[in-house]
Amino acid sequence: xxxxxxxxxxxxxxxxxxxxxxxxxxxxxxxxxxxxxxxxxxxxxxxxxxxxxxxxxxxxxxxxxxxxxxxxxxxxxxxxxxxxxxxxxxxxxxxxxxxxxxxxxxxxxxxxxxxxxxxxxxxxxxxxxxx
Length: 131
Description:
It is a single chain. With 131 residues, this protein is α/β, with parallel strands linked by helices. It is built from 5 helices and 6 strands; from the N terminus they run βββααβαββαα. The strands form 2 sheets. It has a 4-stranded mixed beta sheet, sandwiched between helices. It has a two-stranded antiparallel sheet with strand order 1-2.
């Protein structure tokens, strides 16, 4: 059952189109990541959905040991069956935690799918994992 379903939302700040044709779903009990670089529209996407502020880049600027602790905690929360929508730049940690993911580029969903498949995607490896 879809806990969250959003279809065809556009967001602009003045004349600047930030989000174009936003559509996503989050099923009950699922962990879904929204990933992408700075300026891709991740935070704006979360704000457009509003009221779900379910973590916006929790690892940004933290020491690696704290990043590990945050993702361990998120993993424990998810294990209880709690639905998690995670907005994060740390693609590797995010997708390892997630069931599914959306890759944002220039305000649009460039890729979407099972997290394990996205981790193996050549574009994701090159653009976000440095592989």
